[in-house]
Amino acid sequence: MAKIKHHNFLNTVHEVFSDAKEAGVLHLYAGGTSFSGRTIKVNGKELYHFGTTGYLGLEQDLRLKRAAMQAIEHYGTQFPLSKSYISNPLYGELEQLVTRMYNAPIIITKNSTLGHLGVIPSAVDDQDVIVLDHQVHWSVQNAAKMLKTRSVPIEMIRHNNLGMLEEKIKKYRDSKRHIWYMADGIYSMYGDYAPVNDLMVLASKYPQLRLYFDDVHGMSWVGKNGTGYVLDQLGKLPENVLLFGTLSKTFGASGAVLACSNPEMYDKIKTFGGPLTFSAQLEPASVAAAIASAKIHLSPEIYQFQEDLRQRIDYFNNCLMETDLPLIDHNESPVFYIGTGMPKTGYNFVNRLMQEGFYVNLGIFPAVPVKNTGVRITISRHNQPEEIKGLVEAMTHHFPKALEETHTSAERVFHAFKLNPKVREEPKKPKNMIVEVKESINQMDKATWNRYLGGQGVYDWEGLKFLETVFQGNEKKEHNWLFRYVIIKDDFGVPVLVTFMTLSLWKDDMLADAQVSKGVEEERKSNPYHLSSTVLSIGCLFTEGDHLYWDASHDRADQALFVFLELMEKKELEFGAKMTVLRDFPEKTDWNKPLYGSGFLRVRMPRSSTVDLQGIHTMEAYMAQLSARNRRHFRKDIQAYFKTSQVKVISKGTPIQLLQFKSLFGEVQSRNLGLNTFPFPDVLFEQMNESILWEFIVLTPIGESERILGVMFCYNNSGQVYVPAFVGMDYGFLDKYGTYRQLLYRTIERALELGAPKIDFGMTAAFEKRKLGARVHEKYAYLQTRDNFILELLGVMEGQH
């Protein structure tokens, strides 16, 4: 398979958000002329509010409101001057109060995002390394990535995996000054905690370890003076810890706070912290509201507020314990997450709850993996017991209905989150559909298979028989593929969907930039299977083209689609695959919306190329129909090399030639990190050499027929399509003989000789193929992963090599 280009992250997020917006659960506007915190008006309807991050309800406290209004009257709506020059008159009092809260030196920032952008580049030296928890907030990751320009290495570990963290510490302890681990105190989606005490034990074992916590979701509702979860665990702030809290969210005002007890570090950040220096300072109203809130935090009243919230959290937990709802993490934070698995189930569930009078948040990519979509519920002091109970009753009633309407089940949701289902469900057979899954192409009727999927690529019946022979029974695991053949029929036995899938080992960086692959390959010199995963894919790594027959006109087409997706999910679970890939779709497809709703992300693949030879019988006739520009290209860049080289078609090579073929393909494969797959087994070339379906177009210098410059490996698919599957070349003579362009030309020439009506030219070098008259097609793949770790890790690695 040709390289799948690393997808544009922002484009992917845009498509996911657009889908959610269309479903009516994202980018909403609150209505009404006032706001109490207990309810929120959406689309003209008053809903109980279970989506706030103001857990203590201080944003509605009269003391904060009055302080803000008085500040505007005295000082105006803003104080338009950098804080580096002079702070507005209220700042001094706020800083004194917050310093008392933390009992440590503090820095007030405009917000936590700008705070991270200012603090991280100041705190981390060029001799340091950063290790990110892969669920740490985006604002921390974004700020950390800025240090790539200073060549600071950035690593990533799986969520709360201290074993992986210790491995990274050992990796860098002899070469780096400090090792920064960056994590959230309370994670904003699932409400789970950082293992603070275990991290401090690790820090005592490795003095180079520095801890950077973003605890904005732990602020106010827990801890002495409401200073948050992390400081509550620590007791006092050590010098090897930087701690971010917030004056927004639960604090009820605006801004963020950094606490730092290391005097040298504090002075470095305070003196010049990038955005801390150049950004506008907090508005007088925000500072005044924060002062009023800080006074509450320094009074016994904060503990009564915390207890009021605790009672509500405990009540909600108790109510949930009486249900079979998939609560993803049971904890004592005010953040709860009910999994729905597929996005479309989440959309349906959120809309149902809004119709019942409850507002909740949707948790969606990139905050969570697409397949881990769910409902994020937050509890605040505004919520009363009767509406908390009402929400649980509404969820219990509507959750199974949302599952049924979106063609899924509770068991599938639990599996998506790696949880044991509370209730085992009997497998349901699809109504009016017959599903057949075969383990070998030999179990499929040859005529039937070729009727639906023959005549393209290397996956007609004979081609798949060849591939099964090659990719089974080999020594290395990457050379052994499991094949499955799927036919979904209506109750009359008429096929609605036909495809084949493979389970095989992929290099994770096949989705990444070539520079990332270059760095990963260095690691693979000592660990060949570093960053590799078992993938379930339609088609296989050897084939390209439309691997899926689907009768969109059939009255059960949509049902067949969802039956197939459920089958893929079951096979992924059965085989233990880490990713599912549906590939080679055109830009516009009826599958796009169902696949997004089912937890797949769309990524752009390299463009494919085909040549239509219908009605053309000679090379002269073919060249005549090219544009004048392309004919000039032929004369200058291809025909000019005919005098120095010659071509021949070999159906069976000698042992020496076969060794050269393997070597030349290996040279292309090892150089082309944009096609970063595991090498094919040697048996492939031997089986090609014995098969009547394969032949080799070989380019040699004139007078040196034994020295091979390049070879095109070509498959003849039932006389319906000619397939140059891949190429081997001697890079030392690539420019001297125009090897690649010559082989493209000779492939067209050979297809005409055989009377083939079409050439499937594959997915690489579309620009070169277009100049020889190929038609170029946009292609997309859809990916579904168990988690975001690999995609985020590869994103972190970009620009580091």
Automatic annotation (TrEMBL):
Cofactors demanded by this protein: pyridoxal 5'-phosphate
Transmembrane recorded as keyword: no
GO molecular function, one term: pyridoxal phosphate binding
GO terms for biological process, alphabetical: biotin biosynthetic process
Keyword annotations: Acyltransferase, Pyridoxal phosphate, Transferase
UniProt-listed Gene3D superfamilies: 3.40.630.30, Aspartate Aminotransferase, domain 1, Type I PLP-dependent aspartate aminotransferase-like (Major domain)
Protein name: Glycine C-acetyltransferase
InterPro entries, per database record: Acyl_CoA_acyltransferase (IPR016181), Aminotransferase_I/II_large (IPR004839), AON_synthase_class-II (IPR050087), BioF2-like_GNAT_dom (IPR038740), PyrdxlP-dep_Trfase (IPR015424), PyrdxlP-dep_Trfase_major (IPR015421), PyrdxlP-dep_Trfase_small (IPR015422)
Lineage: Bacteria, Pseudomonadati, Bacteroidota, Flavobacteriia, Flavobacteriales
Broad EC category: transferase
Pfam families in the record: Acetyltransf_6, Aminotran_1_2
Domain BioF2-like acetyltransferase: 631-769
